[in-house]
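Re: the 776-residue chain
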Amino acid sequence: MFEKVLIANRGEIALRVIRTLRRMGIASIAVYSDADRFTRPVLDADEAVRIGPAPAKDSYLNIDAIIAACKATGAEAVHPGYGFLSENAAFAERLAAEGIVFIGPRPEHLREFGLKHTAREIAARCGAPLLPGSDLLASSDEAVKAAAQIGYPVMLKSTAGGGGIGMQLCHDEAELVAKFDAVQRMAGASFGDARVYLERFIAVARHIEVQIFGLGDGRVLSLGERDCSLQRRNQKVVEETPAPNISNETRARLHASAVALGEAVAYESAGTVEFIYDVGREDFSFLEVNTRLQVEHPVTEAVFGVDLVEWMIRQAAGEFVAPAQSSLVPQGAAMEVRIYAENPQAGFRPSTGLLTQVAWPEGVRLDGWIETGSDVTAFYDPMLAKLIVHGDTRDAALARLRAALEASRLQGIETNLDYLRAIAATPGFAAGEVSTADLKDFAFTPRAIEVIAPGAQTSVQDWPGRLGLWDVGVPPSGPMDDRSHRLANQILGNAEGAPALECTMTGPTLRFHCDATIALTGAQMAATLDGEAVESFKPVDVRAGQVLALGAIVGPGQRTYLAIAGGFDAPEFLGSRATFSLGKFGGHATGVLRAGDTLKLAGAAITQDTTTLDAPQLTSEWTIKVRSGPHGAPDFFEMDDIADLLSSRYEVHFNSARTGVRLIGPQPRWARKDGGEAGLHPSNIHDNAYAIGAIDFTGDMPIILGPDGPSLGGFVCPAVIARDDMWKMGQLKPGDGVRFVAEDGYASAVAPRIALRDGASVQSPILRAADGDVPV
């Protein structure tokens, strides 16, 4: 047996092979590009070798780099997985020349079946049924003549490659001529082979394939068939075995045709023979052969109780003991769905970014490379994982699939998880009545909102935020104006702390993909729904397809809150769904909204007590109650400094944010010349635990500490905003006036000083507060 095997691939198939090797007691070697250096396969392998920068052509398709990695590590064999170099005969031959075993079919098999037109020739010699088609075509004129004999519609196909690339449906001559050059260019760029041919197109078709395993001596095992009909743009989405709604006689003929094709060339290793099934004629025709492990191989493993990867490795090492065909009896049914990083409501555009939550249900097989914290890049295929279920019957397998999809959680980027849930819920899929055209016009209504424009600074916040972590430097975040946030939720019957949007200065433009009910509170923003004005402080119904546009704030205040019935769906992080944008965590993803983001809805509202808070009264001249301390007079400030704080009008500085609200006002006189050992300025102290709402003098400028501010600092804080007035901090707008009013002992202590400011001396108690007087 091999001692070391290198996996010339990435993602879920690399991890799949690594785990099989570990179970077999074989050391695994992962190769990786710069983009994949921190992915799970690289971290789990026994050794890992960098083979180049992110682009596939410079890394996973770089034969020289992979062979160099084999030599550097002493790898005796290479498992190619699927995609990349898995069907590259030249790669297999190069490995053989270097004395390294290619775990897969022999080079001649890769060549004979790798080109679809030669595969058709072999199939014809074996007597396999073929669709009417053409030979290779050199020009669009030849294609037009061939199509006239075959009959429209026709499928224009590249002879090389797979995965739906290089295939175009043509309904008439004009469409065939228009697409001919484009398909040739795509095929040449993708596979290095621009040759094309035609096949008759079947309107209502199913894609059924047979898993074979060739022993290399003329014997070929059949491991049942899979139905892969549910495809989008010729890319498989759902696969299952056994194929539903076909007769046992048809099933037997499918298996026999596939085996005969493998026996004709003494096929070796895993392979798949693909057929197209004409639903109207209830018959099948040969399509192509995939000379590699298929993405959907786990469903076959589930019903036959085998490990095809282990079979391939043992065969390549010369230690495979083949089972008898009669012993390969399927048990039950299995289904697989492919989970992609793509946005179904935006034309299935690939999505990238950080996965902030990845959670899978127990009791199902999950082949995937992602985990919470994985970074999904734009360099490779967007498949993230495959979810596989097994049941004693097809109905049992379907029930498990639906339950597993509902229990799965992926957050941070957009995926097709909701799309898969919708497919699994359709009556047609439940009945096994599927075709390759079903998903073309599949009506999918996501419970989601699309961010067309994000606004100045819009974030998901919940109340009371992220509590209990202040002592280790994690701020609570949450809404700056918690009263308006809670009121928006109460209007809709939500729990008052449910996640809602906090919109600052100017709001977002949002397209609703489902019906919803919203409420706006806080500062008045110019708000329209499909151009019609929207009222605040009341429930507003929104229909799917409508666009809500929130403009600039009209009047006093700085922040508007948008709640939705049921709340926004966001992952819980450190006990809260609140966004901490500076820390890049919390909220719907990793920060404030961006154009193109998708906001998910949590579900129907759970009606709570609808007794609402009074609507906050907004103004441009604010009076805010404060409590004293912890740093007062005479230790840090002069008595007149405290008198100034409680009698002067401060103006909100333009450079204010969720971290803190800066104020412009009188300069303190200070009770000391400097901060001593803490620093040169008298505002300096050794590290001090801050409180949210504390008035922190950073030098001579007071700053009201916000919910995203620091928990520890080196500046004095003579006062803290009283809890009941804390919401006002969120509505302070640059240019607003602010006056502080004492709520505790400040009033009696400082009133004489304010009254006799012109020089009279009064006795006053020390204005310092105990820690217990400072609300957090």
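The chain has a mean pLDDT of 92.
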